[in-house]
Structures are given as C-alpha cells and as structure tokens.
Design a protein that fits this description.
The chain is an alpha/beta fold. The chain has helices at 6-9, 35-46, 58-78, 92-107, 126-135, 153-159, 182-191, 211-214, 239-244, 279-295, 297-316, 342-351, 364-370, 386-402; strands at residues 23-24, 86-89, 113-117, 139-143, 164-170, 195-199, 218-222, 233-237, 255-258, 263-265, 321-324, 332-337, 354-355, 357-359, 375-379. Helix 2 (35-46) packs antiparallel against helix 10. The protein binds 4'-deoxy-4'-aminopyridoxal-5'-phosphate.
C-alpha cells in the first residue's frame, strides 16, 4: 500500500472539541463531531424545528421531508434497495434488541441454535441470551478466533448446522480491529438456512458497508461512532423480513388504526418507530454521512491503516508491551503492559493529554479468551495524525519507567 501523508489527510481542523495538545484516541467508544454536524443540529433546533409526520403546517411538513431524506441518506450509504428497509433506532444496541424481540421471538423455537463469536460486544450477546431464555431450549454457540484475533470462519463452517437459525457477528471488532469477511460469513449462514445479522458499529465509520454486496439479512450501526449525534442509529433489514416482523413497542406513529377492539399496524419501517422519533438526531446523522462520504471511506480507511501501522510499530518497540489483534486492524489497537493495570496506563496517559480507553470494552468473553481482565485501547479517527501516535508512544514509555 502506498504511504500516505497523515498531515494531509487529517481533518482535525473540522473538529472544534479537540483542542491543541489533546490526543483523542477513543473513537471506537464514540467519535468527535465535525462542525458541519454541530451546525446541522444547531440549525434544526434553532431555525427549522417542528415535529414530523403529523403536522399540517408547512414547518412540520418540511421537517418530515428532512427526516425522511435522512432515511434515504442512510439507505444510500448502505446501498439498501429502498429507504423502507431502514428503521431509525437509538443505536446498535436497540437495533439488535429489536431484531431479537421481534424477528427472534416470532421465529425461534426450542431446539434452535444461534451462532455468535468470541469477540462480540455485549450488545451482540446479551439480547440473544435474553431471547434464548425467553423461548427456552435455544442454544448459543461461540465461534472461536484465529491466532491473530479474527473470527475463524473455517470453524464457523464446521460448526453450523440446520438447527442454526441465526448467525450474529461483528463486522469490525471494537477491541481488536479485526475485519470480518462478511460476504463469506453470509454465504456460510445461508448455506444452512440461517439468517445473519452483522454488527456494523465499528465498520461503517472505517470501511463502510454495502448490504446488497454482503447479502446479509440484518445490518446495524450507531450514528455516534460515525461522527454523528448520540441517540440515533439504524437497523437495516431485507424488506421481506421487515414486512413480516411484528412490532415491538406500541404507541403513536406505528399504527394504522386504533380501536379498543383491535389495532392494526402501519407498514415497515413506521411500524418499528413508536412515539416521536429522534428528529434532530436523524438530521445530524444525515450531515455526518455527507461529511464521511465527502472525504471518502477509502481515504478514511487508508488514514486509519497508516495510524494503526505507526502505533503498532511504535508500541512494539517498547519492552513489555503486548499487542493484540491483527497487523491490518481497522483503526483500533489494543495492548497491555506486563505488570501494569490498563486503568493505570489510562490515568498516566491522561496526565499527558492522551485519552485512551482502558477496560473490558463491553467484551468480557473476549477478555476471558485472552486471559486478561482488561486491555488498553487506542482507536483512531479522521482527526488523528502522527503527533497523536508520538504522544501515545511517549506516554507509554513514561508508564514503563514509572512501573520499572
Ligand atoms: N457493537 C460494537 C462492535 C460496538 O463497538 C458498540 C459500541 N461500543 C456497540 C455494538 C454498541 O453500540 P451502542 O452503545 O452505540 O448501542
């Protein structure tokens, strides 16, 4: 791969909440917001604000158009066939719970199996456990990882049976940065008649997703990791699946007709959006997708690959640092220092203005597999540059000096 000039591709100047001298390396938790997203939110509340879908006045009609334009924008971003396949949700967590509680409850029966992987985020484990408990007699299988921290699809192929009704896997690991071959995972799931849900939280801001090319059944992501606002995300599902799924939350907006005798539902996606939605969040997400696509995901990915390579090179030169995950990780580097708790690493780095995440990263089964309680994690975004990597390496050298 050609070397890129990080100073050229870094878009730090677009991000007002990253002051000079502060090194934000926690983008996998949540991304900072570019000014264009902040402006879109400001305009929506400060100028254009009104409710959607119900108002007969001009302002509300305009807001409805803008809200539905955001849905179109998400659909185009994922290369969905139709905006009707996009449900706005609070984030990936809510999207996965929605699928579990609607499609899952309607579909799974005792004796069925679900395949997850060892590296899943808790939000792609716990909703399936809750579903399995609710149905009773549903088993969860765990696909192992390769030595360098990828989901082992050869093992998945050997494990899958016709009893499997669902496979749910992370497109990019939030701890290891490893990238799933989502097309192959989909082929494997479909070969036994299972549906597949891909957790795209870390993938959409780093490599993007084309749901038609992948061929998956469900795809979920959170807006706040894509440089957009918190409280908004999307569930994409194949139209025929969504059309057949029962609603989960009842209330306004999701109905066709309500009487005390009987209520009928609105078509998808409205059927899954009970109550007044996160109108401004959707508009902010629209601005975030515009921002990301204006830069281009290939540029963002190349930028992050270069940052990961630089970080891994710098850290591997320091004695006692143990690196996790593959060399070609997408934007994320987890590590540990022998004899030092990651929380201490995080605290000492913070004193030097370097913000990393330390902990189990909502992936305790992965920590068990790695046989450690926690890792330190540096994760990158389009605003990072070589100075951030240098500050990280300098901070880690200080940690190793302090702890001898
Ligand atoms: N899956 C992955 C891979 C994640 O990184 C995250 C957030 N850390 C989630 C799911 C959950 O996202 P949210 O908290 O925004 O719902």
């Amino acid at each position: 791969m050609a070397t890129i000039d990080l100073a050229q591709t870094s878009r730090r100047a677009d991000f007002p909440a990253i002051p000079e001298g502060w090194h934000y390396l926690d983008t996998a938790a949540t991304a900072q917001k570019p000014q264009v997203v902040i402006d879109a939110i400001d305009r929506a509340y400060g100028h254009d604000y009104a409710t959607v879908h119900r108002g007969v006045y001009r302002r509300s009609a305009d807001m409805t158009i803008a809200y539905e334009a955001a849905r179109q924008r998400v659909a185009a971003f994922l290369n969905a066939r139709s905006a009707d396949e996009v449900v706005f949700v609070r984030g990936a967590t809510e999207a996965i719970n929605l699928v579990a509680q609607t499609w899952g409850v309607a579909t799974l029966r005792p004796g069925d199996r679900i395949l997850l992987s060892q590296l899943e985020h808790h939000s792609n484990i716990v909703p399936w456990q809750m579903l399995a408990d609710r149905i009773g007699g549903v088993a969860i299988d765990v696909c192992p990882l390769t030595g360098d921290g990828r989901i082992d699809l050869d093992a998945a192929e050997a494990m899958l049976t016709e009893a499997h009704k669902l496979v749910a896997l992370a497109h990019v690991s939030n701890v290891l940065g490893s990238v799933l071959d989502a097309r192959r995972a989909t082929r494997l799931a479909h070969a036994v008649g299972a549906k597949i849900l891909i957790d795209g939280c870390q993938a959409v801001p780093r490599i993007g997703a084309d749901v038609q090319d992948i061929g998956c059944d469900f795809y979920v992501f959170s807006g706040h990791k894509l440089y957009g606002p918190t409280g908004i995300g999307a569930l994409w599902a194949k139209g025929e699946l969504l059309d057949a799924m029962p609603p989960w939350q009842g209330g306004g907006s999701m109905i066709d007709r309500v009487t005390f005798a009987k209520t009928s539902w609105a078509p998808a996606p409205q059927r899954f959006e009970a109550g007044t939605p996160n109108i401004v969040g959707a508009l902010g997400l629209h601005a975030a997708i515009d921002y990301v696509e204006e830069i281009g995901l290939p540029v963002i990915h190349a930028h992050e690959v270069a940052l990961v390579r630089a970080a891994r090179a710098a850290l591997s030169g320091i004695n006692s640092v143990r690196l996790f995950g593959p060399e070609d990780a997408a934007g994320i580097v987890s590590f540990a220092i022998e004899g030092v708790h990651p929380h201490d690493i995080g605290t000492i780095l913070d004193e030097a203005g370097v913000a990393i995440r330390a902990g189990h990263h909502c992936a305790q089964p992965l920590m068990d597999h790695l046989d450690i309680p926690a890792t330190a994690r540096a994760s990158f975004g389009i605003y990072n540059d070589a100075a951030d990597v240098a500050a990280l390496a300098k901070g880690i050298e200080r940690v190793t000096r302090i702890f001898g």
